[in-house]
Amino acid sequence: MSIGSGPHLGVDVGGTNTDAVVVEGGEVVCAAKTPTTEDVTTGIVAALDEALAKSDLAKEQVSAVMIGTTHFTNAIVEGRGLLPTAILRLCGQATRAVPPLTDWPVRLRAVVEGAVFLTGGGHEYDGRVISPLDHSDLEKTAAAIREAGLSTAAITSVFSPVDDTHEREAADLLRDLLPDLEISLSSEIGSIGLVERENATVINSSLRGLARRIVGGLEEAISSLGLTAPVYLSQNDGTLMDSDYTRRYPVATFASGPTNSMRGAAWLSGLGDCAVIDIGGTTTDVGMLVHGFPRQSSVTVDVSGVRTNFRMPDVVSTGIGGGSIVAVGDEVTVGPESVGYRITERAMVFGGDVLTATDVAVAGGLAEIGHPALVEELDPGIVRDALAYVAEGIGEVLDRMKTGPEPVPVVMVGGGSVIVDHVPGASQLTRPSHFPVANAVGAAIAEIGGQVDRIVSLDETPREEALRMVSEEAMERAIAAGARRETVTIVDIDEIPLAYLPSNAVRLKVKAVGELG
Known about the structure:
Elements: E1 8-13, E2 17-24, E3 27-35, H1 41-54, E4 64-68, H2 71-78, E5 85-90, H3 106-112, E6 113-119, H4 135-148, E7 152-157, H5 165-177, E8 182-185, H6 194-206, H7 208-224, E9 231-234, E10 240-242, H8 243-248, H9 256-269, E11 274-279, E12 284-290, E13 293-294, E14 301-303, E15 306-308, E16 315-318, E17 324-328, E18 332-338, H10 343-346, H11 357-363, H12 380-401, E19 408-413, E20 426-430, H13 438-445, E21 448-457, H14 463-480, E22 489-497, E23 505-514
Parallel strand pairs: 1-4, 4-9, 5-6, 5-7, 7-8, 11-19, 19-20
Antiparallel strand pairs: 1-2, 2-3, 9-10, 11-12, 12-13, 12-16, 14-15, 17-18, 21-23, 22-23
Helix pairs in contact: 4-5, 9-13, 11-12
């Protein structure tokens, strides 16, 4: 797996710790782990500074900085820093029974809803036009957006994955009338499913202002460390995008943490098809790798109470981690309550008074952390039952992720993975070197990616031509995100016949990756 020329700095923000690594020539040179800070950026700078201090690199040698961040996910969860958005649906008389922002949480809708416009346009499922694009109505819409003082807009057209011409024409007209308006198109963000695709586009638009500030702040922070290398951010499909692309598509950073862990696990272990179990301080994430990339979710994804359908890794989480509190009653249970980032203060092996999963792991001989003598007197029965509870709980999640009953190879990563030494359903258990910082490794070794999800008619376009067109579009998206053109290749093609649509329709999902530009 190529990672481009020169040393890379990778950093990933977790709920408890922010990890950073230096990767050069296919090797992890050094790693650092610092507490995650409330503003996120301070923790990123601290982790990078510590990693650089541990290495012998001159700062001008660093060729790229890759960051997996929770900035934008936190903004949606907390409903802060979001822009009121002009929401434009091109639909004619169709779909009006379910208006935009239907079933959004009230608190989030109040922040994001700037103005809603339903106007002419859109296509049927077979590509026929529902109604012509109404230019005069769009001019009135532009005037209303100007009057409302809105700076960002989300445009969604019915069945734009089949034909996106109306979205693009509407965007061009609005840009002519409102040159400073930032526009997000649903055909570039979501997939099949009008409401979910529209929701994802609105979320992206509402984050555009925050994206400018956050990306600019990260670039300034990196520069303050004396680094001149370009900054890339992790996408939720295991690839990277440059800072300009991030400003346009901040929603693509969602769930980049679990994705980075899975990519790092693949690179560190050399396994491309396996399950990855990432155990942190509070939760355990379980996902599946296919050809070295996370398996994508095929269902709608709930983001802070909003149904969306943009690409996300298929990951299931459970409330078991290294800081999970062990409760002793009629039976022994572990989690979901956790001491989190305060584990070094509250766990018994560090002199605290709270029994955690890490304590029972140390008492059970699975790890040497803190002061083992402090847990020597723990009841062996409690230790045995707690460790069994952890293994069974994680095994149940693994069983939900498998596609068959057969055991699968499992790669264990994350600092909390020391709390388990066996998992039901695993044919082999691998804990690679540098497993505690696999998430940062995943960021450091990632390539630039582009993905397209389209419906095409094979009656109108021959199959080979359709594949070529969609593949070229995916490659162009990778190049736009920052990949070198000559290195971009197609790594995955998913072809799904749609029997319920006429004209021999097929859904094509194509992914391209390339080295850093």
